[in-house]
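Tokenised fold entry reproduced for absentees:

. . .
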Amino acid sequence: MFYTGGLPFHFTRKPNYHNSYAYAATHNIPGYVPSGYNVLRTTLLRKERANVERLLKPIKGSWLANGVSIVSDGWSNPQRWPLINIMAASDEGPMFIKAIYGSSEYPKIFWTPCIVPTLNLALKNICAAKNTEKNEVTYEECSWITRIADDASFIRVFIINHSMREDDVGKAQKVKDLILSDHWWDVVNYIIEFTTPNYDMLRESDINRPCLHLMYEMWDSMIENVKAVIYRHEGLEANEQSSFFNVVYDIFIDQWTKNTTPLRYLAHSLNPKYYSIKWLSENLNRLPPHQDHEISIERSKSLKQYFEDENELRIVKVEFATFLGRWFPSPGALTNR
């Protein structure tokens, strides 16, 4: 059946496959005829679709009350046709909607890279800096992290693989010295401490709920938290310069610049949280999105992409300004969004 009918081998991992054969082997069903080609394509398919729709009804029912985000990603089928998978993400969980053949141009669909690979690349550039001519400054400031990581790897490999041979005495002494070194552990703790904001953002981003509207603040706060750890460790004041933090900052900004899109700024601008007095008062340097020059420019770019007609764009800008003045600053805007 698998060879003559072309069934995929992973079909054998399905519980229904095993259950059907187990049932057939232990039960005698006189006159039973397996479902035919036409029945599978029509009647049974309609019944299964109705069953799936019934199971998904609670998820769809929550969209009107709690909201839903439409997300997409690129894919390809066995024939290498470019496909766009459309999914709905909400608090109840993600749900596949449909796949669209993506060889045509869709001027209203914009690609937004996932934030998780961006964070991973930034962390890799800091903790595993390459010793190249173009990367000389970064390697000089960050190579000590690589050495600590190599020491940790050496300890792990020694503990797992050594067999108490005499030629392991030298390695054992090195492992002992490292494990008993307070300075070495202080450095390890420092690395964990200043990379924790990055990992915290990774965890908050890699979830099954909308977070596009939070990316700008999360990235900005993550950098500020990293700076606080480094400056505290180096005993610096906020107005002083740290060569190590400058390198780390440049890496984060470089990754953000390469992978961000105007849509993230638009999403940030449409979140009532960032207009609230509570959020603004938490940090004197914070500005509401409509007063931030960078955010305003990128928001305008995003609106122009969505509304190419000048009259439509003008109406949208007026509506945004009207809603901004009336509702966004109000205390109930965040809870009623």
